[in-house]
Amino acid sequence: MREIDVALVEEAIRSLFLRACREVGPDVLACLRRAHEREESPFGREALRQILENDRIAAERGMPLCQDTGMAVVFLDVGQDVHFTGGDVGEAIDRGVYRAYRDGCFRASVLDPITRENTRDNTPAVVHTRIVPGDRVTLTAAPKGFGSENMSRLFMLTPSQGVQGVMEAVVETVRLAGGNPCPPVVVGVGVGGTAERAMELAKRSLLRDCGEPSQDEALARMERELLRRINALGIGPQGLGGRVTALAVHILKEPTHIAGLPVAVNMQCHAARHASAVL
User: Fold this and answer.
1) Are 59 and 18 in contact (CB under 8 A)?
2) Residue 68 in contact with residue 149, Cβ under 8 Å?
3) Sequence-separated (6 or more) residues with CB below 8 Å from residue 24
């Protein structure tokens, strides 16, 4: 049994959110640069140029990529041979989030859904925990802005709607979203499980390197076809028209019930922010 003090978790969370809110990964930058090269619309090209300039300045000056520094979403993979010491790991995560948003002067955007009273420190975090083999802990910070989150949808399709129904649901979600999620977007899709599991799969799929195809060839074909259909919509960068509405489509699937076909679509803006560490 390996012991890990929760103070290490707190410090890792602080560092990850500071980095994620200030810097997009090299995979996303590569996707944005390719998009800028192939975009034919002059308005779309200019929007992409400004996005790339914004990302450069944010990284150089240690400033947030966007004023919406998001809700703090944490993916926590805990090795089954790990024992946390020194306190409550959930509280340590929230302390790390609080410190990151305080130290980075990031906007506090979290509040009570009914009274609308702000928690003032961007906590609590939304934590997705998995128990995995081994004696390590993998932490991924994924701040999620709500311009894109608000455009996400869940479909409880019937089995007879099949793959075509899945494809239509995804494309329709992007079409209805238009310019609201700050395209070019990364489209996360979860298929299967239950309603809440499909939504988690969709969000988890966004952690894959931008544009990296699924290892499942059938899903990879769906990703390519969906990307083609979405970019044919003509929404374009920032909704100004053009060929590049989406940078990538990522799909994850799990088995589901014989009577159902859950499909979740989680939209992610061009600031596809996430950072990971292993303890």
Assistant:
1) no
2) no
3) 32, 55, 65, 271, 272, 273
Q: How many Å apart are CA 118 and CA 148, to the nearest integer?
A: 21
Q: Predicted confidence band at 245 (pLDDT cuts at 50, 70, 90)?
A: very high
Give pairs for 49-54: CB < 8 Å, separation 24+: 51/237, 51/270
**Residue-level pLDDT at 266:** 98
CB-facing half-sphere around the CA of 226: CA atoms within 13 A = 33
Please, what sign has the CA dihedral across residues 36, 41, 46, 50? negative
- Residue 177 and residue 110 in contact, taking contact as beta carbons nearer than 8 Å: no
Q: Are 167 and 222 in contact (CB under 8 A)?
A: yes
181 and 151 in contact (C-beta within 8 Å)? yes
**Which residues, 6 or more positions from 168, have their beta carbon under 8 angstroms from its beta carbon?**
none
155: nearest Cα among 164, 143, 142: 164
Res. 269 pLDDT band, cuts 50 70 90 = very high
List all residues 6 or more positions away from 47 whose beta carbon is below 8 Å from its beta carbon.
236, 237, 238, 240
What's the mean pLDDT in 44-57? 96
pTM of the model: 0.94
Report residue 131 CA to chain centroid gap: 21
Rounded Cα distance, 11 and 241, in Å: 43
Q: Supply the mean pLDDT for the chain.
A: 97
